[in-house]
Amino acid sequence: MSWFYLLIAGLLEVAWAVGLKYSAGFTRLWPSAFTLVTMAGSVGMLGLALRNLPLGTAYAIWTGIGTIGTAIAGMALMGEPAGALRLGSIGLIALGIVGLKLVTPA
């Protein structure tokens, strides 16, 4: 269950990062509320995952999922560039996540 909690925490991190962009610096009510709720949910799920997973592994994977997801969301939703070097760098982050998962018991 801990890995599932960690996955949800990472996906919620993507959600709050995108929400933060749409909140326009917390000047728009509903995007701001969405951002705050997903922030709390993300940290809460990370906390549940940390019951059984090592801190360094869980935190690195949480931020990695958030980084990859937010970068992809930026490209898909906001027209950010998707050059080969950028995509390759995202791929390296994904490899790091897979590597940490493979060497972490639980």
Summed up, what is this model?
It is a multi-pass membrane protein. With 106 residues, the protein is mainly alpha-helical. 81% of the residues lie in helices and 0% in strands.
Description:
The chain has 106 residues and is mainly alpha-helical. It has one domain (2-103). Helix content is 81%, strand content 0%. The chain has four helices and no strands. The protein has helices spanning 2-22, 29-49, 55-78, 84-103. It starts with a helix and ends with a helix. 25% of the residues are buried.
Keywords:
106 residues; mainly alpha; 0% strand; Small_drug/metabolite_transptr; EmrE-like; transmembrane helix; transmembrane; membrane
